[in-house]
Specification:
The protein starts with 8 loop residues before the first helix and ends in an 8-residue tail after the last helix. Helix 8 packs parallel to helix 9. The strands form 2 sheets. It has a 6-stranded parallel β-sheet with strand order 3-2-1-7-8-9, with helices on both faces. The protein has a 3-stranded antiparallel β-sheet with strand order 5-4-6. The protein is an alpha/beta fold. The protein is built from 10 helices and 9 strands. It folds into 2 domains: 161 residues, 3-Layer(aba) Sandwich (Rossmann fold), CATH 3.40.50; 82 residues, SIR2/SIRT2 'Small Domain' (2-Layer Sandwich). Keywords: Metal-binding, NAD, Transferase, Zinc.
């Protein structure tokens, strides 16, 4: 028996669609990283059900809120540091290597796509990256370990070592503007693809969740792979509601 014979019909259909496509764009959300130990903040019992998210304006205006944000960051850091790419990340990296996937657009901030081998210039991070920080005034990069040392010494969120400005993880907070360059890159990639794979996203956070419909309007086929139903399922050419890693893993055997 071949690989295709062992797969459920939706997974077989996914492999056929990827084989037939020439310009694939992958869009990922938290669901692809849960098997790696990264929490899904929105799920029951997730961080946002325990703590109210800190709004960007509160972070900017309150030293107390900045300290609380860093306290939460350091509490979650062991899980982020221990995480390694999962089966889904590795399958996507394979598709990038063989030239099948042009770009990976992600809502995730965990850096796992890059760790799996996807080149930096192929990853479009809509919500930033939590593995480092930067100054909101001068843009200087700051390493998380350096900030932790300063925070533990004083109990206060440290300022930029170069200009004294406010330092924040390189992520997009509630109330913070989306990164314009990344949004433009994501739009261009979406408009150029012939297959759009939305993986592990509830597709409720806009404007990012608008990309699947943008691809569909431009003639691309749309696949939604998520454990739970989404509001965009009726627009998809294929919906797969199964374990993400198990469904994507066979794609690692594809050749261009």
């Amino acid at each position: 028996m071949g690989l295709m014979d062992d797969l459920e019909p939706p997974a077989r259909a996914l492999i056929r669609m990827v084989r037939d496509a020439e310009r694939v764009v992958v869009f990922t959300g938290a669901g692809i990283s849960t098997e790696c130990g990264i929490p899904d903040f929105r799920s029951p019992g997730g961080l946002w059900t325990k703590y109210r998210p800190i709004e960007f304006q509160d972070y900017m205006s309150s030293a107390q809120m900045r300290a609380e944000a860093w306290r939460r960051k350091f509490a979650m850091e062991p899980a982020f540091r221990a995480a390694r790419p999962g089966r889904g990340h590795n399958a996507i990296a394979h598709l990038v290597r063989i030239g099948k996937v042009r770009n990976v657009i992600t809502q995730n901030i965990d850096n796992l796509h890059q760790m799996s081998g996807v080149p930096e210039n192929r990853v479009i991070e809509l919500h930033g990256n939590a593995t480092y920080a930067h100054c909101l005034d001068c843009g200087l990069r700051h390493e998380i370990d350096d900030i932790r040392m300063a925070f533990e010494a004083t109990g206060e969120a440290p300022g930029c070592r170069a200009c004294g400005g406010i330092v924040k993880t390189a992520t997009v907070s509630f109330g913070q503007a989306m990164p314009q360059e990344e949004m433009l890159r994501a739009e261009a990639a979406t408009e150029d693809c012939d297959l759009f794979l939305a993986i592990g996203s509830s597709l409720v956070v806009y404007p990012a969740a608008g990309f699947p419909l943008m691809a569909k309007r431009n003639g691309a086929r749309l696949v939604i792979l998520n454990r739970e139903a989404t509001d965009l399922d009726p627009y998809a050419d294929l919906v797969v509601s199964d374990d993400i890693g198990s469904v994507l893993e066979p794609l690692s055997t594809l050749n261009n």
